Amino acid sequence: PYYVDMNQNLFLQASLHSSDQNLKVFVDTCVASPNSSDFRTVVYELIKSGCASDPTYTLFPSPRGDATRFGFSAFSFARRFPSVFLRCQLLVCRYRDYSSRCYQGCVSRFRRNADS
């Protein structure tokens, strides 16, 4: 566990451990839950499809492509739960493959009209 105060800034880094230097890591989705085994019932989206859902979420530059850095402000679920757990989905792509999902950034998905 990592203990923080409310509204304290949290900084995270995810990195690959691979001998292949031509890989890039990208945070696609990151959600928080008060329950470590249930990320569907009560959740808070920080990132969805590469788009920041939380106004305090910040993506930071990384010195290497095989690592990503981001941060957000600590929060609670209506002060009713003592802990917050994170689950993030990361994508791994070929470095400098600009057609890959890693280089598309935020992808908003819109609903289509049934008539079109």
TrEMBL record:
Keywords recorded for this protein, A-Z: Disulfide bond, Glycoprotein, Secreted, Signal
The keyword Glycoprotein is assigned to this record: yes
Subcellular location: Secreted
One Gene Ontology cellular component annotation held by this UniProt entry: extracellular region
Domain ZP: 1-109
InterPro entries: ZP-C (IPR055355), ZP-C_dom (IPR042235), ZP_dom (IPR001507), ZP_dom_CS (IPR017977)
Keyword set includes Glycoprotein: yes
Major location (coarse): secreted
Protein's recorded name: DMBT1 protein
Taxonomic lineage: Eukaryota, Metazoa, Chordata, Craniata, Vertebrata
